[in-house]
Design goal:
This protein is mostly helical. The protein has one domain. The termini are far apart.
């Protein structure tokens, strides 16, 4: 893959299916993430696999609440405060 393809072809995904990710795929993703560069080569990593719509929705709500509580007031932050 050319670097231009990787950069220009990237995208954000905001809609997900309820299809479960199989264990082998999760393990392959973690193995790849372990090999990724990190700050000053410290190798400190923690991975958490969260499954189930109820749990994911709760984590999402809590993450947004934390982000809003710690975010500096700015024109950009208003978008997050009004979004559902």
């Amino acid at each position: 893959m050319k670097i231009e393809d990787a950069i220009l072809g990237r995208r954000s995904v905001r809609e997900y299916t309820d299809d479960a990710v199989d264990e082998q795929t999760i393990r392959r993703l973690i193995a790849a993430a372990i090999r990724a560069p990190n700050a000053v080569n410290q190798q400190v990593r923690t991975f958490t696999i969260a499954r189930g719509r109820t749990r994911l929705d709760r984590i999402s709500r809590q993450a947004k609440a934390h982000m809003l509580a710690t975010m500096d007031a700015s024109a950009h932050s208003e978008h997050f405060r009004t979004a559902s």
